[in-house]
## 1
Amino acid sequence: MNYGEILSKAWKTIWKHKILWLFGVLAGCSVTGSGGGGGGAGGGGSANSTFQPGSLDFLTPSTQRGLTEFGRTLAEIPVWTWILMAIGIFVVGFFLSILFLMLGTLGQTGVIKGTGMADEADTEAPPLSFGAILTALKPHYWKVFLLHIGLHLAGFFLALILVVPIILLTVCTCCLGLFLLIPIAWLLDLLVNFTIIAILEEDLGVFEAITRAWQVITRNLGSVVVMFLILGVGGMIVGLIISLPVILIPVPLVANLLISGGQSITVGLILSVVMSMLFLPLLIFLAGVLRAFILASWTLTFRQLTLEGELSPTILNDHSPEE
């Protein structure tokens, strides 16, 4: 397999069809947890002990008074209000999780389907549009979405079952046993990616796509491992590079605290907020482009591996006719 050709073709594909950048950004939507209600409910019971003036001597008197009054206000909120807030946070978090999962599925399937469409189109064809990709992936979207739902549920119950064995493995092997889980996690992640590609590329059902993905991986394990190392390690390095500006966001706030001796945070806080508003959108955009490139590379890898499998010669037994 020509790895350089695949990587070059993936980059040329997402560069020409820049709509794939948008799908790459959407693919980064993560599922948010809804466990924030417990933290809010615990705040009311400890408000009196937390916001004591004597424990805030490093702040200005006005700030101490403000925090103390805030703590007293929290302590006066009835328990049933905290319960309703927790339920509300849980419900909102649940629906946001579903929304983000739908957007993430749309982004992932959009990049994969768009890459396949671009690979089959003529070199002189115009760039793909959002509507064209959306129309092409409609028959497959819900299968991938249900696959994601099933994976999340299976992962949840599997985590409940394996949490104790994993802890025992970690303790008994001084954390060295965790390294045994890395190849398993890699194989599962790759199996999921190839399953989704098989659904979109070959119009298979979920279980058929899982079988197909397993066949492609096991029959081309060496090539797949090399590509994983290229995309995994390379993607991690590039991801760290593009995330470096995020480290600079808290610098003004920390500098302001050091210069003022902890007496003022206003200027540093404002500068940090402004920097976050500038850097975070850029980071999200660059991460989306990187994600689109990686998904496009895996899609082209799958297409080449399956094409090579179909073109492999089949040797038949040559039985001479009986005389």
## 2
Amino acid sequence: MTTIAWLIPSLLEGSGGHRTILQHADYLRQRGHRCMLYVEDNGAMSGSSLRKTIRQMFGFDFEDVRLGWSGVKPADMVFATIWYSARFVRDLPFETIRCYFVQDFEAQFNPMGDAYLMAENSYRYGLYPITIGRWMTAMLGNEFKVESTYFDFCADLGLYRRLPDVQREKAICFIYQPEKFRRCPELGIEALGIVKHFMPDVKIYLYGSRSAGRVWFAHENLGLLSLEECNRLYNRCTVGLCISATNPSRIPFEMMAAGLPVVEVYRENTLYDFPEEAILLCEPTPESLAKGLMERLSSQKDAEVGGQAGTRFMQARPIGHGLEQFYSGVEVLLAGGKPPKRVVGPMYRQPCLVAEANSQQWASDGSAARMPLPDYGRLSFLPPVPRRIIRFLYYGLRRLRRLLL
């Protein structure tokens, strides 16, 4: 039995990233490895409650869970799981196989500056990355000349599936997380506002956060949902909107498994893992995203074809497929080897959908009354309360401006 240690960031309720880390650690444990979890100490939790909290939040039960990264015991392999844990793994004072569980290009979580460059440096510390999805492996090789391997985006097909007792509505569901800038909450809301103006009978469902945000059109915010509730929502809607600017989210793949066609932004990070038959990639403007959503809503045939294509694509990607890919990579590294190099290229080759942003057809949606977003990155030096006050004042002024124009 080998020992594998994981350096995990502070626990966050509803975090898909934490769920993915724990899921893969749990799979290694099922295959006979001993996994030790070291959870970042942010002063908000005692070590004795960690195991219970992980079980309550994510449904996984690990016997050896410790608080803090300062006392990592010798292990055969150690995983960094967030950019600032990579240096801890690099500097461990014992011989071990140093790995990096990479779910995102985390440098882009920060404005250009120290944090951005230090996050990039995490790929230069000699750790071996195992990435979720093909794009991160391609990017690390192209931009940093770092060899890595990947496992595919997959879904639990026993959970995410078509439900015969649920009828489709003329509705959009959007993963709306105002606290995560990489999820582009404002861009999504602007696009949905346009859709709601031109198609007022469309239902808009927001979910994924306890924050209600500031949304000016009729909608229903469902907050944090269980996994089962997410699947039921995907079965109710005609199209799903999920935007992720740093690496694909797992959510579009779960939507596709449930037979829901998806709209996303067309960027380098979305070209390597999405099938062009089931997803529509749009220029990252509100107008283009709105056009893509309205095209899917306006054609029941296209929506059905896209949904069926997504289901077919995901049939080859059950959750066990990705877990086994990950496990195989770990086994090769533990044996002293390196996973074979794989040539990775774009999967999506269609041109992006573009709407003319300057066209007068969009003017009636009230866009002239909208103010540009403040650069919140420049406010990062402020404590949370002043930042929230500034955000509240910004949205209040924005709403007042709409009323006056």
